[in-house]
Design a protein that fits this description.
It is built from seven helices and four strands. It is an alpha+beta fold and 212 residues long. It starts with 6 loop residues before the first helix and ends with a helix.
């Protein structure tokens, strides 16, 4: 299956999120001005997929074109990028949302604009709890890959020998929370972990779908 690249593809593949086989779901939230993050995701998505393993489903919530004018805008946007590795064509058929729209999406998840770009994690669409991991558009590729290696290694720590699925999933969630908390102290970022949502993740996405 190809990676999920946009909110529309999230809606089209909603059955994936209702399955029981993933321990974590994660999506990147960034703007069209976070060009370094946008490029990095496209060049290294397959490596991110390998790092996260079978426990984590990573997806994007970028914007799909609706008109030929939007298709032209997308082509113009990616034409200005220099990709150092071959990039899957499908990743250049969508575009990150502009700041106003990205901030609107972030608001639904209780994320402050200053903490974008970030990765948002949740473990079940019926729950209200999310965790988010801020990124920095100025980070080098080396810094980014080191961050992701540490992140996904920490997530799976001590879970190899846990046979019970529910127990393993709980351990993975705890690992993620501890890792993010350590990072918040190290990077002096306040409110690194969000408060519970006012509504379930499912309901937040339904609101987003209605606004497409």
């Amino acid at each position: 299956m190809n990676p999920i690249r946009s909110l529309e593809e999230v809606r089209e593949n909603w059955d994936i999120f209702e399955g029981k086989w993933r321990s974590l779901y994660a999506f990147f939230l960034y703007t069209n001005e976070d060009r370094n993050i946008a490029r990095y995701i496209r060049e290294y998505f397959h490596e991110l997929d390998r790092l996260s393993g079978n426990e984590v489903l990573i997806f994007l919530i970028d914007k799909s074109p609706r008109t030929w004018e939007e298709e032209a805008k997308i082509r113009d946007y990616w034409r200005e990028f220099t990709f150092r590795t071959r990039v899957w064509k499908g990743f250049k058929e969508v575009i990150p949302y502009d700041r106003s729209r990205a901030y609107e999406i972030a608001e639904f998840f209780g994320i402050r604009p200053r903490l974008i770009p970030c990765i948002v994690f949740f473990r079940n669409i019926n729950e209200r709890e999310i965790l988010f991991y801020p990124l920095d558009n100025s980070w080098s590729d080396k810094r980014l890959i080191n961050e992701f290696r540490e992140l996904f290694s920490a997530v799976r720590e001590g879970c190899e020998n846990i046979g019970d699925d529910n127990e393993r999933k709980e351990q993975i969630w705890r690992n993620l929370g501890r890792f993010i908390k350590r990072r918040s102290i190290k990077q002096r970022i306040v409110n690194f972990i969000t408060h519970p949502l006012a509504r379930s993740v499912r309901d937040v996405f339904r609101i987003l779908f209605s606004s497409l």
